[in-house]
Amino acid sequence: MIIKAEVAGAARHHRYMSDETYRKECAVRAGAEATVSGLTRAHGRKKSQHRKQGRTRLQLIFAALACNVKRFIRHGKQYAYLVPKMVGLPLFLGTEAEY
Fold first, then answer.
1. What is the full DSSP assignment across 19-40?
2. Quick check: 51 pLDDT over 70?
3. Cβ(13)–Cβ(19) under 8 Å?
4. What average pLDDT does this structure show over 14-33?
5. Are residues 69 and 43 in the same domain?
6. Are residues 54 and 99 in the same domain?
7. 57 and 42 in one domain?
8. Confidence class of residue 52 from pLDDT cuts 50, 70 and 90?
9. Where a domain ends, among 14, 30, 47?
10. What is the CB neighbour count within 10 angstroms for residue 5?
11. What are phi and psi of 88, to 5 degrees?
12. Rg (CA), the chain
């Protein structure tokens, strides 16, 4: 069973998506929502561990910093400008040939 409101909503969505500026705004929002979702999943930022606003803000800043550091490391490994040098490894880590 098709509801008229759903059809009207779909038609409105198609009208909006034909507009270039609206699509760009949607892309920005999608990127921001992906970042927030990543922070929530990876760093548990759904609930604050602090009651005071200043501490909560600091917690979010550190979570964002951790997220950016992880992104930097992944990007560096992907494009090979951030390859760790395994010189003088301790014995418990193994030899250089293993890495």
1. SHHHHHHHHHHHHHHHHHHHHH
2. yes
3. no
4. 84
5. no
6. yes
7. no
8. confident
9. 47
10. 8
11. 65, 45
12. 23
The first and second tokens of residue 81, run together, are 């400008």
Residues 43 and 57 reside in one and the same domain: no
How far is residue 34 from each of residues 8, 28, 42, 45, 93, measured CA to CA in Å?
A: 28, 10, 12, 14, 36
Whether residues 1 and 19 share a domain: the answer is yes
Which residue in the block uniquely carries the two structure tokens 């760790």? 84
Other residues' Cβ atoms within 10 Å of the Cβ of residue 45: 19
Full residue range of the structural domain in which residue 81 is found:
50-99
Which amino acid is residue 91, in one-letter code?
L
- Name residue, tokens 């010189």: 87
Please tell me whether residues 35 and 60 are part of one structural domain: no
What token pair was written down for 60? Answer: 């979010």
Among 13-27, 51-65, 70-84, the least confident range: 70-84
Overall domain count for the chain: 2
> What pLDDT, on the 0 to 100 scale, is given for residue 77?
81
